[in-house]
Amino acid sequence: MTTPLTSITPDGPVRGGVIVIQEAFGVTEHIVDVCRRFAAAGYHAVAPHLFHRSGDPVVAYDDLETAMPLMGKLEATAIDEDVDAAAEALSAVSIGPLDTAIVGFCMGGTVAFHTAVRRELGAAATFYGGGIAEGRFGYPAMLDAAADLKTPWLGLFGDRDKGIPVEQVEELRKASAKAAVATEIVRYPDADHGFNCDDRPAVFNPGAAAGAWSQTLEWFGARLGQS
Question: What is the pLDDT of residue 1?
């Protein structure tokens, strides 16, 4: 089954590629806008549609009754196939693995982390990805896999996130520091889960979102486009 991809290219010179992994609501307009923002920064952005085996829906942010079962159907092997399809699409336009980054939000942050364990890419960033102490989708717990990171990884978390305790984030900081690649975790004291999504007024935090975006661009910019 071919993975549908949303692909947005820069108007000018290309600095590298970014694989953008969705939240639990599908490839929403917000995820498409993230791709546009990366393209504006000079990166060819590709977002694989992880729900395509379930009809590729886009779910309203307040419709957890629909979103949770869709997320529950996801399996690591299928997710990895979709991520690899995005990487292959970038490779087809001469953007190799070390000039490719991956970023994910919510459940996509979990996927970005485990891709950074599985593959050697240029850089990776996780926005409030869960599964730190307990595995998700068939992946192991982040704490158990952190020492095996192959890709430089940046974690971005909000202290007010009820689903990701600060104590777990700090355990992950220690565990990821044992990896052979560079790792960094940044916490935002006033930020809740989903703080980057400006389409969700209840949780959007402009200051944290701007800070995390800047951190991500800096993390990617220092590593992509060097080959």
Answer: 78
The pLDDT of 205-212, averaged and rounded, is: 98
In a domain, 226, yes or no: no
Q: Domain of 212?
A: 5-221
Domain-embedded: residue 167: yes
Does residue 84 have an active-site annotation?
no
Question: Is this structure's pTM higher than 0.70?
Answer: yes
Among the options 49, 52, 193, 197, which is catalytic?
Answer: 193
Catalytic site residue from 106, 114, 192, 197: 106
Distance CA 114, CA 38 (A): 21
pLDDT tier at 227, thresholds 50, 70, 90:
low
For the question of residue 30 being annotated catalytic, the response is: no
- Strand-strand pairing, 183-188 and 153-158: parallel
Alpha-carbon span 172 to 157, nearest angstrom = 11
| Active-site residue, selected from the candidate residues 80, 99, 161, 192 | 161
Average pLDDT over residues 172-181: 98
Q: Is residue 31 part of a domain?
A: yes
| pLDDT confidence of residue 8 | 98
Total domains, the chain: 1
Question: What gap in Å lies between CA 63 and CA 65, rounded to an integer?
Answer: 5
193 has catalytic annotation: yes
Residue 227 domain flag: no
